């Protein structure tokens, strides 16, 4: 039976009790409105720990000025049921006041230079500051031994990994594989905003990523691969933020095609902004 906790003192008492027993604790941070991708992270966390805490907190500091914090869907009953079925032990439901006791404007912020300024960071200024600020607070609240994040948010995972090393958090970060719909669309809470007239076109992103991978591995120049990917997305009705091939650390590759790469796309279809990636 999952326990829902809203008081930090209760959360810390539970975790302290587990650790006195020598148990390993995992954290799965979420913003709620959960789907199979989130539940796969709970199961992944269970593989690395004895107990799993999942947080649901719609974080106001990672929404930009044109992104509606109040519009983000909140589905607490479905989330609780799904987390319990996935094997979560504790659902941590902090309030905005407990997360930011001096208010959002006076909150101490965590900024990770470099990797947070690229791609998503360039198109959503301040987004990763909000992510790192809330994740670092969750780390301090839960004090997990391991934390699980999805690879769909590839850059977020890279930013958090850098933050953990830089701030010496004694936490193992594990990345969960992308969970997809039957037609290949990466699962996301935003998918529900896709209207029936554009939903079929949402599968184009995955096809473009696969084509970009194949073209790059076939020896095509990176600039050509990126231009073709953007053109294919635009032809399908997307407004493209970026379609790029990068090194695993998100730096730009040289002329050599050897070694690991990741292709990443962010584009808007109708009013819905979608992201996806493929590692190869």
Describe this structure in words.
- The protein is of the alpha/beta class and 280 residues long.
- It folds into 2 domains: 3-176, 3-Layer(aba) Sandwich (Rossmann fold), CATH 3.40.50; 189-279, Pantoate-beta-alanine ligase, C-terminal domain (Pantoate--beta-alanine Ligase, Chain: A,domain 2, 2-Layer Sandwich).
- The chain is 36% helix and 19% strand.
- The protein contains 9 helices and 9 strands.
- The strands form 2 sheets. Strands 1-4-3-2-5-6 form a 6-stranded parallel beta sheet, sandwiched between helices. Strands 7-8-9 form a 3-stranded antiparallel beta sheet.
- Strand 8 and strand 9 form a beta hairpin.
- Helix 6 (127-142) crosses helix 7.
- The N and C termini lie far apart (40 Å).
Average pLDDT number:
96
- Structure classification: alpha/beta
State the helicity in percent bands. 25-40%
The CATH superfamily label of the largest domain reads HUPs
> Count of DSSP helices?
9
β-strand percent reads 15-25%
- Reported by name, the CATH topology of the largest domain is Rossmann fold
Which residues sit in consecutive blocks of at least 5 with pLDDT less than 50? Answer: none
Q: Cα-atom Rg, whole angstroms? A: 19 Å
The outline comes out as globular
Which CATH class of the largest domain is shown? Alpha Beta
Concise synopsis of the structure shown:
With 280 residues, the protein is of the alpha/beta class.
Write a concise keyword list for the protein shown above.
280 residues; alpha/beta; Rossmann fold; Pantoate--beta-alanine Ligase, Chain: A,domain 2; 2 domains; six-stranded parallel beta sheet; three-stranded antiparallel beta sheet; 9 strands
């Amino acid at each position: 039976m999952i326990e829902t906790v809203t008081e930090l003192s209760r959360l810390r008492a539970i975790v302290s009790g587990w650790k006195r027993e020598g148990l390993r604790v995992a954290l799965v941070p979420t913003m709620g409105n959960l789907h199979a991708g989130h539940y796969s992270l709970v199961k992944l966390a269970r593989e690395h720990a004895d107990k799993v805490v999942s947080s649901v907190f719609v974080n106001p500091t990672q929404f930009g000025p044109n992104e509606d914090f109040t519009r983000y869907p909140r589905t607490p009953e479905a989330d609780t049921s799904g987390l319990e079925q996935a094997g979560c032990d504790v659902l941590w439901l902090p309030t905005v006041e407990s997360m930011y006791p001096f208010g959002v404007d006076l909150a101490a912020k965590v900024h990770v230079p470099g990797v947070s300024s690229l791609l998503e960071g360039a198109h959503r200024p301040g987004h990763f500051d909000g992510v790192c600020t809330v994740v670092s607070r969750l780390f301090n609240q839960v004090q997990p031994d391991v934390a699980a994040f999805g690879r769909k948010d590839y850059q977020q995972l890279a930013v958090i990994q850098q933050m953990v090393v830089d701030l010496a958090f004694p936490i193992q970060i594990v990345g969960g594989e992308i969970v997809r719909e039957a037609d290949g669309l990466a699962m996301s809470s935003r998918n529900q905003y896709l209207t029936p007239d554009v939903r079929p076109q949402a599968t184009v992103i995955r096809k473009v990523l696969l084509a970009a991978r194949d073209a790059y591995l076939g020896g095509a120049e990176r600039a050509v691969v990126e231009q073709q990917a953007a053109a294919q997305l635009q032809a399908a009705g997307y407004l493209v933020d970026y379609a790029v091939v990068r090194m695993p650390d998100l730096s730009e590759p040289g002329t050599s095609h050897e070694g690991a790469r990741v292709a990443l796309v962010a584009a808007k279809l109708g009013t819905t902004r979608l992201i996806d990636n493929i590692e190869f």
